[in-house]
Amino acid sequence: MNSQPNPILLELAEQLPDATQTLKNIHEPKAYEEIAEQAKKEMRCLQDLVGSLEEEPSATPFLEESGYEAWLKEVEAEDVLRVIGTLGLIAELSDELAED
User: What is the value of pTM for the model shown?
Assistant: First the structure.
């Protein structure tokens, strides 16, 4: 576990919706491996959401549990893409930090 939140991760996390689990993991701070894994899960679910033509994509329950419930109700497509990119950067950096 990290004793202090990584300042770069904190800055990236400012672009995430307020209640997300990845944001919480960065602020706590959790182990980099755990941050990376959560960010990857959220990113995959958001990608599924974008690519889904169904009314209720299967990724929705996980996203709601991960703090996206209110955000999903008013989100626009460009916001989803921005958050996917941010989660990708967080996951990549966390993986690199975990290796060090």
Answer: 0.86
- At 28-46, the pLDDT tens digits run 989 999 999 999 999 999 9
Number of H helices, E strands in the chain: 6, 0
Structure tokens of 93? 């950096």
To 5 degrees, how large is the angle CA 56–CA 24–CA 95?
A: 90
pLDDT band at 49 (very low <50, low <70, confident <90, very high): confident
- In angstroms, the CA 5 to CA 13 distance is 11
Residue 43 near residue 84, CB atoms below 8 Å: yes
By CB neighbour count within 10 A (0-12 exposed, 13-18 middle, 19+ buried), where does 20 fall? Answer: buried
